[in-house]
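Quick one: structure for this chain?
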Amino acid sequence: MEKVDYQAKCLNQLRQSVALLGGDGQSPLLAETADLIIRSMTGPWRSFHTPEHIFDVGQGGGPVEMLAALFHDVVYVQIDLGINVNLCRYVAPYIKEVDQTLVIDPLVDPQDELFQILLTLFGFAPGHKLSPFAGQNEFLSAVVAIKCLQPLLPKAVLVQIAVCIEATIPFRGPSADGQFCSDVLLQRLLQVNESAHLGMDLATCHDTVVMGVRVSNRDIDNFSSEHAGDFLNNTWDLIPETNHELVSVNSYTVQGYRMSLQKMEGFLGFLKPEVVFRQFGDEPSLAEHQRRLALTQRNLEVARMYLRIKLVTIALLEALSLRIGQNVAMATLMGEIASKNEESSPSMEQFLPEMKPLPQMKGEIEPIVMELLDVGRTAESAHDTRHSPVSSYLVRQIGFEATLALLPPVRAFLADPSTAPQLLATCDPQVREGLVNAIAQVIHVRGRALLSA
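Got it. Here's what it folds into:
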């Protein structure tokens, strides 16, 4: 879909939602707002947090949920390497930068009632240091939403939208005193309702938090994908958002690719399903909540094994690349990733030894991972191949258990690159020889092409 199509769809949803909430759905401000949202969501580093994502998060929700979905990711500092210049006029009056950290301005106007309400809903205060892992992006996105929509909607509705955006702060377990984030949010909303005279009764406040839970659960719905490959597709779209080197296909380095896998494996390695999806009251039903948790557990187990095998593989390749030089490009070792209209260049996959038959597999997870390595994820990725031929070769040659047993020396190598010889020494000699010969063949074919020119 082209940017102009995204803007038209966003404008239509803004108009419908604002009108349903009693505002002027034909206000010219909405065209400006749609343009603002889509420009923010189509920045150069966006590959997962895109217009498609906000439309998915809003799908099936009421007008408050729809508006929250459209705004909830407009600010994403670590992806966009700052705040989109088009958004600055909305957030600049409220924050300042101190030692590369965004801080809520201690001198913010105490008479700015809506901003004071946002501070209460998010549990922040003037002078608070914002963290990208604790609500920074959601808070600033809520500021943009409230300031854009303030001329069009009643104060109580604006607060409901802010509640739904706050609810999208992900991966929060119970607090030190055992309270869940949805219960804390309800308490804050009740406080705001009384102090700002919003006129909402207890049932309306409760239903507002329910709306927030629905938005939150749709925001991370991919964790409960029925097919583990679909979950990994989204994971692979997330990786380049914070590993910008990968956007330059065929020039990113072995080390850069390894670091991106290492960060994702570290993040998913300790994530629990219980902090992914939320339940508040009867939303969702217990059966649906349990279904999501079970699928999330399965997908996390698949992703962990898949990422750890790929981490072992790339660490072996990185250790070998040090024989050539520092910061060697992936394409130097493995060949280039051809675009749809390009002829494929010599690739490492072509020169690997003949694959052994499938290894003996145990449980539910190993067959899924083997298929993902052999056949690939269910969608293309701009920065990587769908399948993993070198990882497939490794697992087929020595099996899952021996491959994963390489993780300790791999982690030692990643902490200290001088241990590369020790890592390679722990690898099966035939496997190591197969990798070395395949890389040498890729380089040799390229050398012949250069000499024949």
